[in-house]
Amino acid sequence: MITLLLVLGSVYAYAGTIISIVITKTNSADLTDLTISGSPSNYTFTGSTYNYSGVTVPYSVKSITITPTGTGTITVDGAAVSSGSASNAITLAEGVAKTITVVTTETGQIAKSYEITVTRALNPVKAITGFSVSGQTGSTTITESNHTIAVTMPYGTVVTALSPSITTTGASVSPTSGTATNFTSPVTYTVTAADGSTQTYSITVTVVANTAKAITGFSISGQTGSTAITESNHSIAVTMPYGTVVTALSPSITTTGASVSPTSGTAKDFTSPVTYTVTAADGSTQTYSVTVTVAANPAKAITGFSISGQTGSTTITESNHTIAVTMPYGTTVTALQPTVTTTGASVSPASGTATNFTSPVTYTVTAADGSTQTYSVTVTVLGPTVINITAISGVTAPVAGATPVTIITASDQYTGIVTWSGNPGTFAGTTVYTATITLTAKSGYTLTGVSSNLFTVSGATSVTNSANSGIVSAIFPTTLLAVGQSYQGGIIAYILQSGDPGYNASVQHGLIAATVDQSTGVQWADPAFTTTFVPSGTDTAIGTGLANTDHIITLHDQTPVVRSTYAAGLARACSDGGYNDWYLPSQDELNKLYINRVAVGGFAAGIYWSSSELAYNNNHAWDQNFSNGSKSAPYKDTVDYVRAVRSF
């Protein structure tokens, strides 16, 4: 610091930063004005003030001039200055006080000395003039108007420990240049000027958005092989299996961009190439042309293989690509013409081509895509087939009165002739018959190999044959009787059924009618007994006719009467077949004769007597009209027809 001291009467000089100047004052040498250039602060001139300290000028003022106004001789720091004129420039150092002495003298007056201490302010600047981060993109933007700084870093930069290089016009900055700082959020930097004032700056580091926009994955469910992505021309190729409908495929897409259009999973028609546009995070785009190709048909299976006249179905075994065909016994296989159907484009040998199948033949199917598949075809010719139709048709259980069959109903495998035990012209009742059936194998079949007792005959109780033999013995149960059959002196008129009195499921029983009527008109009772109840009574049920007849005859035998005079006596008198147990049928037995009158035969369209009298009237007995089946109980002296029956 330089200090100028204005001391009356003497002048002192000091070495160093303080200079003291003594100005002799006269009574009339006062200045009327003393101006300082450079817009000084803390300075106002008054004529009676000779010492001014603490005067400052801005940092920008590097020098000042002093303009004194007054009479006499004026010096500024020893240099003469005319009144009203500026002194030489006085250089000021930043922050250093400068003492300037102005002396005014005038003859006859007391000299006056003015001391002014001026300090140039320290530098107030505090701007960030440079801010850079290694690797940044482009230039830093420093906006002084709002004290903001913007830096852009490449995509992918980690901003948690960036070390910026900083230049300022100030004395210091915090954080300091090169200090690693986290720029995840804006960071405040404070610049301190030389004069101690500060200025803050908000620093924002932005990481550039991703520019990537490549399709890195493109797949469609069920596609064949891998997708081909050609980045050089931005094309994508996908192959789908044969038969794929490409009008609504939904691809899965992965990209390095922010989005893709159409979006992943959107159903699209790939009949023609489809353009996909990938948009990067920074908004830039890249298009890809996607082509979907449907593979040619790879199918090459033989699905049908048949030869005219073959036996059974063809066996196609896809697992080992073999085909087996069986031909009938006796087939010549040297020029067979199979019909072949395939899923391929062609087959060789072609369908219908005459081929020698003495050994297995290889057929090659070529698919639409050019791939091939071979099949080995084997044709086997059957030997004669062992007869396996076990049921012999056309032979049934003998029925009494029927004519025996002599041939069987031929099957696909054999024919046969039949002989019967006893060589009957017709089958008798209650007889056990044995049929001997001799089978003859048809062409392509053989009896060699048949097992013993293989065959069956409907109705037989026992059927036997030897192994490898077609001679079959069939034993049948005892022949059954049938209504209308001649039997034991007459015609079977009725066979007892379940529920009938005397029915036996194991033994047939029934009624036999005489072959002709015993009378075309006779009374029920002899005139002597037409008004008499039969002792012990009569009944109407099946099985009671014999007892009825016995009771009626007993009544008439009390007074000897010729039996030919009444119905029961005539019936008993019948001796057809050598049997003497004929009788007049009861009411229910007579009704069975009416029901089966056609099978029995010989009945008139008249009224026939039963052996049943009316239970509550001794003058009447039951009869039945064989023209319409109506029943009545006329007087016992009425004349009716008589047909005798017997039981078996």
Quick recap:
The chain is mainly β.
How does this model look, in words?
This protein is mainly β. The protein has 6 domains: 33-120, Sandwich (Immunoglobulin-like); 128-207, Immunoglobulin-like; 215-294, Immunoglobulin-like (Sandwich), CATH 2.60.40.2340; 302-382, Immunoglobulin-like (Sandwich); 384-480, no CATH class; 486-647, no CATH class. Helices cover 5% and strands 35% of the residues. The strands form 15 sheets. A 5-stranded mixed β-sheet has the order 2-9-8-5-6, with no helix packed on it. A 5-stranded mixed β-sheet has the order 11-12-16-15-14, with no helix packed on it. It has a 5-stranded mixed β-sheet with strand order 18-19-23-22-21, with no helix packed on it. Strand 39 (486-487) and strand 40 (490-495) form a beta hairpin. The chain is rod-shaped, with a radius of gyration of 74 Å. The protein starts with 32 loop residues before the first strand and ends with a strand. The model is unreliable at 1-26 (pLDDT under 50).
